[in-house]
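So, can you check this record?

>
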Amino acid sequence: MTVSRFRTILYTVAAIVSLAGLADAAYLSVQALTGETLSCGGSPDCFRVLGSSYAKVGGVPVALLGALAYFTVFAFATFAAFGYARARTFLIPIVGVMFLATLWFLYVQAFVLHAYCRYCLFSAAITFLLSGLMIAMPPGDTSVRKT
């Protein structure tokens, strides 16, 4: 398998994985914006996390920011799979920021709130997987379009 084909597969997997994160974040965004009761499988921890002051940044639900981030990853990963080099240039820092934000929110859940949200942990797993895919990406490829 050529490096170019391997990259295309990794970008395609990243695009598909980001859709799972987008679905999770969109669900939480709708819940946050409409005030609907979230189904957490009876776990009170979920409500403690999602109802905390850490669930919003400047009045904007963190889940909405996550949905925007996952959609952006989906778009750039799709463009990168089709060979657009600039997409890769933007994709790696976005996933890096998502990774750092995930570490922060895991810290908050573990050491500040002492409660865990299943949806948040799922999002963390998706972000870690996306980070791993970016790390696994082979460096440089002369067959990638320079547009």
